[in-house]
């Protein structure tokens, strides 16, 4: 198996790398924030990330950053999100990354673990089901499925 190495996003360079991966995954996002520009990412890194209570991770295969993951802390729960660059999908990296996010959340937060997925995103939905997430509801007229571990 090809092993994914996860590390925290610690500096602006990491944040800009995360932006590139995230932008490639933009059409799969449940919140329509579209593509994030360089200046927006810089502003976000310096002024917003702490206020939003985010932990961000990059996933490396050898030297290549191929995936990103985010844990967002809300009042009573944490929300997971992330993605893998298209070229590297289907190789087990998504599963490794979400397993890592779940373990990290379990160790660091005593809260529910939740996520949201577009109804049309079969790959992500299958992955989440196989990790033990259960559907708890929908929003946006059924277009977005809410799940909880
Ligand atoms: C969803 C995503 C993270 C999965 O990552 P991945 O590295 O491609 O997935 P993996 O190779 O680790 O496979 C894990 C499981 O996902 C599911 N899966 C992956 N690709 C799939 C596909 N094309 N069709 C159906 N199920 C699929 C399977 O259940 C698979 O388990 P299996 O290999 O035992 O069958 C990845 O496809 C991705 O980044 N998509 C775009 C961004 C995105 O959708 N992010 C999530 C937003 S909610």
Quick summary:
The chain has 149 residues and is of the alpha+beta class. The protein has helices at 12-24, 38-48, 93-108, 122-130; strands at residues 5-8, 54-61, 64-73, 77-84, 112-118, 134-139, 144-148.
Explain this structure.
With about 150 residues, this protein is of the alpha+beta class. The chain has a single domain (about 5-115), classed as Gcn5-related N-acetyltransferase (GNAT) (Aminopeptidase). It contains 4 helices and 7 strands; from the N terminus they run E-H-H-E-E-E-H-E-H-E-E. It has a 7-stranded mixed beta sheet with strand order 1-2-3-4-5-7-6, with helices on both faces. A hairpin with a 4-residue loop joins strand 6 and strand 7 (about 145-149). Helix 1 (about 10-25) crosses helix 2. The chain is globular and about 35 Å long. The chain starts with a strand and ends with a strand. The chain binds coenzyme A.
């Amino acid at each position: 198996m090809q092993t994914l190495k996860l590390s925290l996003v610690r500096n602006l360079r990491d944040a800009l790398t995360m932006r590139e991966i995230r932008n490639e995954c933009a059409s799969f996002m449940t919140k329509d924030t579209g593509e994030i520009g360089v200046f927006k990412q810089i502003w976000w890194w310096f002024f917003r990330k702490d206020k939003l209570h985010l932990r961000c991770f990059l996933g490396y295969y050898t030297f290549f950053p191929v995936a990103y993951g985010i844990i967002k802390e809300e009042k009573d729960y944490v929300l997971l999100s992330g993605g893998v660059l298209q070229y590297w999908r289907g190789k087990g990296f998504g599963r490794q990354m979400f397993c890592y996010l779940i373990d990290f959340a379990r160790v660091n937060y005593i809260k529910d673990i939740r996520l949201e997925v577009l109804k049309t995103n079969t790959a992500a939905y299958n992955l989440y089901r196989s990790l033990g997430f259960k559907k708890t509801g929908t929003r946006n007229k059924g277009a977005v499925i809410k799940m909880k571990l």
